[in-house]
């Protein structure tokens, strides 16, 4: 198989190498040293990074989308508001923009770290009441929005932000309350209700 040479744009045959073809006169460790030097040359190749202006624009967009989502959460009394969501949006957009091309696992670690922030806004109330799950889910989605922005998928990020705000606000819109399950809860039995025993 032909391959592209690292130091030029020409194609080289598969048996060629930077150290030349192997010969009987080669010392036992010569070929191993040559392979190590070749790997070292590859690691010395500079990583392709997006322009600084591109990174700045993406960070600003991530911050703005985070502020919009956090503003809605702040209006509804969430402990995580516009500041928290703005910081999450800026951080995920910045880290993704500079690392997703050469280190995709960094994005996975970033999402894991954001999960701890989401866990911090969930707390138990009286009895079995748990609050903050919706905000925790919104923080996770905000991280996904930041990843979209960081990879340059700005339109998808904006559409996802609008969709998330719509889902969070659907129960507060008079003409769309019929889409909210809370509107029909009294008509159905709950999972916590005792089972119905048949009369014999």
Can you describe this structure?
Strand 3 and strand 4 form a beta hairpin. This protein has six helices and four strands; from the N terminus they run E-E-H-H-H-H-E-E-H-H. The chain is elongated and about 75 Å long. The strands form two sheets. It has a two-stranded antiparallel sheet. A two-stranded antiparallel ribbon has the order 3-4. Helices cover 53% and strands 4% of the residues. It has helices spanning 30-43, 52-75, 82-99, 105-120, 133-150, 154-169; strands at residues 3-4, 11-12, 123-124, 130-131. The chain has two domains: 3-43, no CATH class; 52-176, no CATH class. With 200 residues, the chain is mainly alpha-helical. Helix 3 packs antiparallel against helix 4, helix 4 (105-120) runs antiparallel to helix 5 (133-150) and helix 5 (133-150) runs antiparallel to helix 6 (154-169).
């Amino acid at each position: 198989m032909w391959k592209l040479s690292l130091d030029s744009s020409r194609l080289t045959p598969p048996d060629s190498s930077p150290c030349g073809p192997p010969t009987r006169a080669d010392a036992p460790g010569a070929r191993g040293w040559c392979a190590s030097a070749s790997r070292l040359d590859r690691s010395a190749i500079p990583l392709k990074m997006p322009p600084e202006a591109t990174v700045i624009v993406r960070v600003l967009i991530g911050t703005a989308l985070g502020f919009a989502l956090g503003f809605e959460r702040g209006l509804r009394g969430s402990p995580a508001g516009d500041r928290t969501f703005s910081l999450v949006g800026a951080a995920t957009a910045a880290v993704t923009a500079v690392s997703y091309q050469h280190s995709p696992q960094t994005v996975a670690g970033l999402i894991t770290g954001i999960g701890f922030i989401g866990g911090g806004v969930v707390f138990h109330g009286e009895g079995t009441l748990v609050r903050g799950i919706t905000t925790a889910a919104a923080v996770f989605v905000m991280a996904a929005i930041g990843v979209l922005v960081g990879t340059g998928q700005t339109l998808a990020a904006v559409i996802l932000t609008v969709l998330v705000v719509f889902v969070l606000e659907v129960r507060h819109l008079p003409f769309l309350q019929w889409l909210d399950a809370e509107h029909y809860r009294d008509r159905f039995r709950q999972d916590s209700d005792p089972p119905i025993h048949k009369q014999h």
